[in-house]
Amino acid sequence: MISALSHQPVIPALKDTAMSQAFTAIATLVAKSGQQALLQRELTALVQPSREEAGCQYYNLHQDAEAPGTFYVLERWDDEAALEFHNATAHFQHFLSQTREAIEHFELKRLLLIL
């Protein structure tokens, strides 16, 4: 998710065989001071169009109950190509342009289902 942010590292692609299998991604975003409402609004606007993308199995937005400026996006994609497509969509690029200065911290974890 957020690989285009200039102050964030590029999100590396999954390696070899993992690139062609479904995976879950957990994106953690922490708003800068005073930017929580903006980040929440833009994340909320991103949910429905992301859910409608081919290759998206689910896309759910959560807020940390103890740290309201921290948001988690739980995503499940058919494969790496589906996430790459998502990152290039107009709605995701709009999100990036609106939140570039609002994000204090970003992290993306990719998880492969075991059981």
Describe this protein with a few key phrases.
single chain, 115 residues, alpha+beta, Alpha-Beta Plaits, 4-stranded antiparallel sheet, 3 helices, 4 strands, 30% helix, globular
Low-confidence stretches: 6-10
Biggest sheet character: 4 strands, antiparallel
Q: Which geometry do the CA atoms define?
A: globular
Mean pLDDT: 90
User: According to CATH, what is the topology?
Assistant: Alpha-Beta Plaits
Distance between the termini: 25 Å
Summarize this entry quickly.
By secondary structure, this protein is of the alpha+beta class. It is built from three helices and four strands. It has a single domain, classed as Alpha-Beta Plaits (2-Layer Sandwich).
Indicate the topology:
Blueprint: E1 23-31, H1 36-51, E2 56-63, E3 70-77, H2 80-88, H3 90-99, E4 103-111
Antiparallel strand pairs: 1-3, 1-4, 2-3
Helix pairs in contact: 1-3
Question: Could you describe the 3D structure shown?
Answer:
One of its GO terms (molecular function) is oxidoreductase activity. It comes from Pseudomonas chlororaphis. InterPro entries: ABM_dom, AI-2_Isomerase_LsrG, Dimeric_a/b-barrel. This is ABM domain-containing protein. Residues 23-112 form the ABM domain. This protein has 115 residues and is of the alpha+beta class. It has a single domain (21-111), classed as Alpha-Beta Plaits (2-Layer Sandwich), CATH 3.30.70.100. Helix content is 30%, strand content 30%. It is built from three helices and four strands. It has a four-stranded antiparallel beta sheet. Helix 1 (36-51) runs antiparallel to helix 3 (90-99). Residues 6-10 have low confidence and may be disordered.
